[in-house]
Specification:
8-stranded mixed β-sheet; globular; 2 domains; alpha+beta; D-Maltodextrin-Binding Protein, domain 2; 9 helices; Fructose-1,6-Bisphosphatase, Chain A, domain 1; 23% strand; 334 residues; binds manganese (II) ion; 5-stranded mixed β-sheet; binds 2,5-anhydro-1,6-di-O-phosphono-D-glucitol
Length: 334
């Protein structure tokens, strides 16, 4: 009898994809998988629990109001990761500074993690898909020492693994270690992720564009021209593309990854670098996009080649199907 492969079985069968000490990725991903299941449980019952739904009335470092689930998810991922011994430190959207795990076990960890514990948090209260995004690097500092900022300010090309969880109509975990992109769906009744989307490839062309068009008037000329191109009959499909914008990056990205499309969060007059954070939003999804055959660009530069200068740095972001990203870059630079 055949059945789907579990995430655990898959990782073990693909140990060669992670050419470091055996078992490290498996341990690290199993910590992420555990926290994801706990967060998933709370997301699913959020509407019934005042402890979980709504705002904390506090602001995070970005000046954004934190939702209770932002804080809860952040705690769950920190707890799960600091107890494994693979990870020596973590940087999160919800914490101003890096967190260096200060136990002998954690100090011996070879990896650092960057995480957006809950992405799309404005959608929590209205029952719309949200997600978690993570990115894994090898540390720069010596094993045994405390992690420092230097371990985190690495360009995206140095990522050894990246992934996201989408809490959608079903819950999925999608990851890459640089050997293709693989998607797993949670079977909620037994709490196991099964391989449902092996070797995901993004179509080279798509017919979906995702952008907050409310900002249209303050986009630069090249972006405006590309949006007009999407709305016209002059594009690759010969008829207007469909506009789809959920407002949860993970969910918009996931749809475009499977169906073909482009997601854009360009700079505006007020925010020339846009809104999305390089280290724990843009780079991990750029790694996945590229591994699936797509592209991620700021309009001027490949996202994964940017040398970060600060933890919560923002960059303009264009990600998705190869031909669509190339087209918008052409408009920006024409
Ligand atoms: P987060 O909830 O982690 O702060 O991220 C929100 C991001 C992203 O998920 C989404 O695509 C974008 O903000 C939406 O921003 P706008 O409401 O400005 O379109
Ligand atoms: Mn986010
Ligand atoms: Mn977030």
């Amino acid at each position: 009898m055949n059945r789907f492969t579990t995430l655990g079985e898959f990782i073990i069968s693909r140990q060669a994809d992670f050419p470091y000490a055996k078992g490290e990725l498996s341990s690290l991903l199993s910590a992420i998988r555990l926290a994801a299941k706990v967060v998933n449980r709370e997301v699913n019952r959020a509407g019934l629990s005042h402890d979980i739904l709504g705002s904390t009335f506090q602001q995070n470092i970005q000046g954004e109001v934190q939702q209770k689930l932002d804080v809860y998810a952040n705690e769950q991922f920190i707890i799960a990761l600091q107890n494994r011994g693979e990870v020596c430190g973590l940087a999160s959207e919800e914490n101003e500074d890096i967190i260096a795990f200060d136990t002998p076990l954690a100090r011996s960890g070879k990896y650092v993690i960057m995480i957006d514990p809950l992405d799309g948090s404005s959608n929590i209260d209205v029952n719309v898909s949200i997600g978690t995004i993570f990115s894994v690097y090898r540390r720069k500092t010596d094993i045994g020492s405390l992690a420092t900022l230097e371990d985190f300010l690495q360009p995206g090309v140095e990522q050894v693994a990246a992934g996201y969880i989408i809490y959608g109509s079903s819950t999925m975990l999608v990851y890459t270690t640089g050997h293709g992109v693989h998607g797993f769906t949670l079977e909620p009744s037994i709490g196991t992720f099964f391989l449902s989307h092996p070797n995901i490839k993004i179509p080279e062309d798509g017919t979906i564009y995702s952008v907050n068009e409310g900002n249209f008037n303050s986009f630069e000329e090249g972006i405006k021209m590309y949006i007009q191109h999407c709305r016209s009959n002059e594009n690759a499909s010969g008829k207007p593309y469909s506009a789809r914008y959920i407002g949860s990056l993970v969910a918009d990205f996931h749809r475009n990854l499977l169906k073909g499309g482009i997601y854009m969060y360009p700079g505006t007059i007020k925010d020339p670098n846009g809104k999305l954070r390089l280290l724990y939003e843009c780079n991990p999804l750029a790694f996945i996009a590229e591994q699936a055959g797509g592209l991620a660009s700021t309009g001027k530069q490949r996202v994964m080649e940017i040398q970060p200068t600060s933890l919560h740095q923002r960059v303009p972001y264009l990600v998705g199907s190869k031909n669509m990203v190339n087209k918008v870059v052409e408009f920006i630079n024409s």
